[in-house]
């Protein structure tokens, strides 16, 4: 499993999640967001960025949404996310490029 953020101008590092790790709302908030993604995004964009997630269950948790409302300047809430579609997920393309490079 991998996690990363993509914008119109750049992308964060690809963060590989150890096999067998349960990505629940706590792991997602404390490890992925606080330690990896948000610091990476702030390094690339400063404080002016829009943050949107996909439909993964841990992204919908009430505490997760509240955390992001308080800690991200422009957070797009789940009620306005597009439906799940592999065709609109730019992370898939970036992940394949990173995997090809590693291989």
Provide a short characterization of the protein structure:
The chain is mainly alpha-helical and about 100 residues long. It has helices spanning about 25-45, 55-60, 60-70, 90-100; strands at about 1-5, 15, 50, 75.
Give the helices and strands, then pairings:
Blueprint: E1 2-3, E2 15-16, H1 25-45, E3 50-51, H2 57-60, H3 62-71, E4 74-75, H4 90-102
Parallel strand pairs: 3-4
Antiparallel strand pairs: 1-2
Keywords:
single chain; 103 residues; mainly alpha; Nucleotidyltransferase, domain 5; two-stranded antiparallel sheet; two-stranded parallel sheet; 4 helices; 47% helix
Q: How would you describe this structure to a colleague?
A:
The protein has 103 residues and is mainly α. The chain has one domain (2-102): Ribonuclease H-like superfamily/Ribonuclease H (Nucleotidyltransferase, domain 5), CATH 3.30.420. The chain contains four helices and four strands. It has helices at 25-45, 57-60, 62-71, 90-102; strands at residues 2-3, 15-16, 50-51, 74-75. The chain has a two-stranded antiparallel sheet. It has a two-stranded parallel sheet with strand order 3-4. It is globular and about 40 Å long. The two termini are 16 Å apart. The model has no long low-confidence stretch (mean pLDDT 80).
């Amino acid at each position: 499993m991998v996690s990363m953020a993509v914008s119109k101008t750049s992308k964060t590092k690809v963060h590989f999640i150890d096999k067998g790790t349960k990505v629940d709302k706590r792991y997602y908030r404390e490890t992925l967001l606080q330690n990896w993604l948000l610091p990476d995004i702030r390094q690339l964009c400063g404080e002016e960025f829009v943050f949107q997630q996909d439909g993964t269950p841990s992204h919908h948790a009430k505490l997760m949404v509240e955390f992001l409302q308080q800690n991200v300047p422009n957070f797009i809430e789940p009620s306005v996310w597009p439906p799940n579609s592999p065709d609109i997920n730019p992370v898939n393309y970036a992940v394949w490029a990173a995997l090809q490079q590693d291989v």
